[in-house]
Amino acid sequence: MTKLIIAGGSGFLGNAIAEYFKPKFDEIIILTRDASATKNGISFVTWDGKTAGAWQKELENCTVLINMAGKSVDCRYTEKNKKAILSSRIESTRVLGDVISTLKNPPKVWLNSSTATIYRHSEDKQMDEFSGELGTGFSVSVGKAWEAEFFKNPLPKTRRVALRTAIVLAKNDGAFVPIKMLAKFGLGGKQGNGNQQFSWIHIHDFLKSIDFCLENDSLEGPINISAPNPITNSYLMQGVRKAVKIPFGLPLSKSMLEIGARIIKTEPELVLKSRNVIPKKLTDTGFEFKYSTIESALEDLV
Questions:
Q1: What's the average pLDDT block by block, 10 residues per block, for the chain (302 residues)?
Q2: CATH architecture of structural domain 3-166+201-226
Q3: How far apart are CA 73 and CA 246, in angstroms?
Q4: pLDDT tens digits for 5-57?
Q5: Cβ(30)–Cβ(14) under 8 Å?
Q6: For the chain, which residues make up each domain, given as ranges?
Q7: How many whole angstroms separate alpha carbon 127 and alpha carbon 146?
Q8: Which pLDDT does position 52 carry in this prediction?
Q9: Within its chain, how far is the Cα of 139 from the centroid?
Q10: Which of 285, 140, 123 is nearest to 208 (CA)?
Q11: CB 249, CB 241: distance < 8 Å
Q12: How many other CB atoms sit within 10 Å of the CB of residue 81?
């Protein structure tokens, strides 16, 4: 009997993963801060994301564990929020690792969410898993600490993959929704100088790449989950305007973005950082993207 456990699986990506893998596993369990329940054939089991409890027995004889737990980074980087962003990732990863180390039959594979933002701001160099250069600053330090905790202890029976995920584009959720709305309201011009690279992946390829990681025993360590063709912010917004059939778009300067970010309680870094990431491990292993260009992705999403 095959069992998939998704920790922190109540969000946008966690729900998508659960639905995608329903036909592929006999049992799916989502570890959640909400009350335990069963909905649509999926079991929800309560945990707090930082301490061991009754939930830990579910990990015995589990086939696959996917950890997506972590406070959203779409917020103002106050000291309180920064502490929550870091601790929610480190504590959930730590307690899962501690529990796995005690099990007789631990998960065969453990995929842990990470971030493509772990690389430095780069407009010049494409970052792969072998020659990519890690950056500095708050977001990068979170990524480094997250992965350090994930790979800290030897777990000889469990293959581990850190999912360095770029911006996931989907029709009705995630980052694409506000991007599309900006264009529809005539604000779909470049943001900042428009030269920052935008690394992205279509939700279809995101889910397929996770499946691919599970099926390929040679894949372990950090894996870039990103389409093979990053684009500039200016090119992205041009493509979105074309897709929604709005011929013009007012640009948003860095100062305007900073004001707007305060109003909607987010950080301009989420738009202005240049993420220039390519998925070398995936492509070298033979993964084929259905949406390898932003044009094909936008044609499907709009």
A1: 92 94 96 88 94 95 97 92 96 98 97 97 96 95 98 96 97 90 90 95 98 97 98 96 93 87 81 94 98 97 93
A2: 3-Layer(aba) Sandwich (3.40)
A3: 29
A4: 999 888 899 999 999 999 999 999 999 998 888 888 899 999 999 999 999 99
A5: yes
A6: 3-166+201-226
A7: 19
A8: 95
A9: 13
A10: 285
A11: yes
A12: 16
- Identity of residue 28: I
> In the 3-class helix/strand/coil scheme, how is the chain assigned residue by residue?
CCEEEEECCCCHHHHHHHHHHHHHCCEEEEEECCCCEEECCEEEEECCCCCCCHHHHHHCCCCEEEECCCCCCCCCCCHHHHHHHHHHHHHHHHHHHHHHCCCCCCCCEEEEEEEHHHECCCCCCCECCCCCCECCCHHHHHHHHHHHHHCCCCCCCCEEEEEEECEEECCCCECHHHHHHHHHCCCCCCECCCCCEECEEEHHHHHHHHHHHHHCCCCCEEEEECCCCCEEHHHHHHHHHHHHCCCCCCCECHHHHHHHHHHCCCCCHHHHCCCCECCHHHHHCCCCCCCCCHHHHHHHHC
- Between CA 169 and CA 227 the distance in angstroms is 11
Task: Give the pair of three-digit tokens for residue 191.
Answer: 């943001």
Q: What is the dihedral of CA 233, 136, 129, 112, to 10 degrees?
A: -100
What was the pLDDT predicted at 270? 83
Alpha-carbon dihedral sign for residues 65, 29, 47, 139: positive
CA 60/CA 227 separation, integer angstroms: 34
Q: For residue 47, what are its two tokens? A: 């945990």
pTM: 0.95
Nearest to 8 by CA among 74, 71, 101: 71
